[in-house]
């Protein structure tokens, strides 16, 4: 049976590396699922949950909070290069909640003083925090 080799790389090094049956990601144009023998492709990723269905008997899944990046698929190898990526089990939920609240405050302040650039930065920070919180809910008990 064919499988995918999935590598998630950040500036800090390899964040995730495993064999998989499928990889589901959100690109800037919408969702995509990569299966073995997929046509070569390079796509930009959105801030979203990356789902890796691993090669195991019970079809275990890993959820990874990816803050944008690029996904390249070629010869059953899926390389994801991102500025940051965290597995569900590694996310500090309290820190993510604080980041969410801080981003919401920054958005409100930027809106009040009509600073569009700061508002957009805060909006991206909010998206990242909400993504991390959402992915963390996929932890195994």
From TrEMBL:
InterPro entries hit by this protein: ATP_F1_dsu/esu_C_sf, ATP_synth_F1_dsu/esu, ATP_synth_F1_dsu/esu_N, ATP_synth_F1_esu_C, ATPsynth_dsu/esu_N
Domain ATP synthase F1 complex delta/epsilon subunit N-terminal residue range list: 4-85
Xref: CDD domains: F1-ATPase_delta (cd12152)
GO molecular function: ATP binding; proton-transporting ATP synthase activity, rotational mechanism
Membrane topology, from the record: Peripheral membrane protein
GO cellular component terms, semicolon-separated: plasma membrane; proton-transporting ATP synthase complex
Superkingdom of source: Bacteria
Any coiled-coil regions, as ranges: 86-120
Keyword Flavoprotein: no
ATP synthase epsilon subunit C-terminal domain boundaries: 89-136
Keyword line: ATP synthesis, Cell membrane, CF(1), Coiled coil, Hydrogen ion transport, Ion transport, Membrane, Transport
Keyword Coiled coil among record annotations: yes
Subcellular localization, as worded in the UniProt entry: Cell membrane
Oligomer and partners: F-type ATPases have 2 components, CF(1) - the catalytic core - and CF(0) - the membrane proton channel. CF(1) has five subunits: alpha(3), beta(3), gamma(1), delta(1), epsilon(1). CF(0) has three main subunits: a, b and c.
Task of the protein: Produces ATP from ADP in the presence of a proton gradient across the membrane.
Family, as annotated: Belongs to the ATPase epsilon chain family.
Name of the protein: ATP synthase epsilon chain
Organism: Trichococcus patagoniensis
Lineage: Bacteria, Bacillati, Bacillota, Bacilli, Lactobacillales
